[in-house]
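task queued by scheduler; priority normal; single chain, no ligands, no partner chains; default sampling; output format set to structure tokens
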Amino acid sequence: MGSDANRLRRKWQDYSGRKAAKAENSFYDVFMELFTDTEYEVTKHPQDFKDIYLNVELSEKELGEIYTPDVVIKKHGISPDLSIRNTETNKTIYIEVKRQDGWIEGGERRDGRGNAHERSNKFFTPGLLKILREKGNIDNDTLPFWVVFQGNITRDPLRVREITLWYDGLDSHYFFWRNNGDPEPLIEHFLTKIKPIIG
């Protein structure tokens, strides 16, 4: 483990000792505190991709077969929940935080309905992978995103298996944050799995 990761870990341990009584932490708050006076910055809803679909070129044939509105479309893209950028390496990882119900003790199987976890899979598509890698300065052999799951979905026996299969061999890029009152596992995942990607 590098000295920089140890520095961030010590910084967080000092903070968490002072704030231990706080019942719930948000991803943004945890990383805002961790990154104070460092080369890292966390941004809510980065606008890097707010219009990526506007300039997708279609063939004349395709254009002739779709609806062409009379209005000018000014915004059509995606907005990840957050991004973490290393200002020294100029590398960025994009983050989705997905909270979803799930099937747990005392509940029923249908409690696991919902598709927030499935919607996060758009980042696996070839076109978005290419654009996120380019904008984030991330190598082609690495995913340019990190998905953090919260809520009962993190304990649902069906959804956990689905997500684990989807990310087979890519477990650095997802995390089940099961206890929002304890950010230590989240920080540890960042330090050991995500930080090496962005330097």
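post-processing summary
- Residues 19-23 have pLDDT under 50 and may be disordered.
- Residues 13 and 184 are 8 Å apart (CA to CA).
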